[in-house]
Amino acid sequence: MKRLPVILCMVLLTACGSGGPPPPDWKTDAADSIERYQKHALLGENTLAERYFQQAITATGGAGRVTDTARLWLVHCATRRAMLIDDPCAEYAELARIDPDAADQAYYLFLTLRWGAIDIDLLPKQHRELVRAPADVRPSQLANVDDPLAQLLGASLLVMRLEADAATLTLATETASSQGWRRPLLTYLKLQEAQAKSQGDTAQLERLAQRIELIERNFTKDHK
């Protein structure tokens, strides 16, 4: 089995490399669909992404799995927040209202920036040191995260918490670029463009404008 991103393994929809009997069809169907959702969302292919997400929800909902359906919404929220979309995770919160899972709730608090209320040991290990670190050293902690999507998510949450620095934007930009994730890449390049404009850095503005134009041109081709 291929190595899944931390966000997907957190959901526990697949065995994530563990042994045991094969999972039931609803679980494998949901895992396959949510992974496809994430891939296409990061590429900026929104209609296709949401179609796969609804397939995942249908798989868990049809099996009457409230907790698993809530976790899918948590992945949906995490993916959007990694792209700097201010999603409040409301669908997860509604489904988890009656009987929340402790680890899911910790992740929800992480995503919604309520880090002071988190039991850090319940978080995926990739995020623990980021939350534990003092605010002024959090940006430097991102370099220690080896999962690209977890790294991008951490950077985006620091931006939302107003704790990011210029290096955070660069790291997020190059992480998205290395993975071919067009939507967050474009967002971060435009953040860097605004920063360069405020600093009067014309050489950097030219470099960024060239990258932005190239991405936007290919977005247009994909969506014709």
Compact description:
By secondary structure, this protein is mostly helical. Helices cover 68% and strands 0% of the residues.
Q: Work out the strand percent.
A: under 5%
**Mind summarizing the main beta sheet?**
none
Can you count the helices? 12
Report the principal-axis shape: globular
The arrangement of helices and strands along the chain is HHHHHHHHHHHH
Overall number of strands: 0
Distance between the termini: 35 Å
Radius of gyration: 18 Å
Number of domains: 1
Low-confidence region ranges = none
Return the average pLDDT rounded to an integer. Answer: 91
Sheet/helix structural class: mainly alpha
Helical amount: 55-70%
Structural write-up:
The chain is mainly α. The chain has one domain (6-14, 23-222). The protein is built from twelve helices and no strands. It starts with 5 loop residues before the first helix and ends with a helix.
Keywords:
224 residues; 0% strand; globular; 12 helices; mainly alpha
Question: What is the topological layout?
Answer:
Layout: H1 6-11, H2 25-43, H3 46-62, H4 66-82, H5 90-95, H6 102-111, H7 125-132, H8 138-141, H9 148-160, H10 166-179, H11 182-199, H12 202-222
Helix pairs in contact: 2-3, 2-4, 3-4, 4-6, 4-9, 9-10, 10-11, 11-12
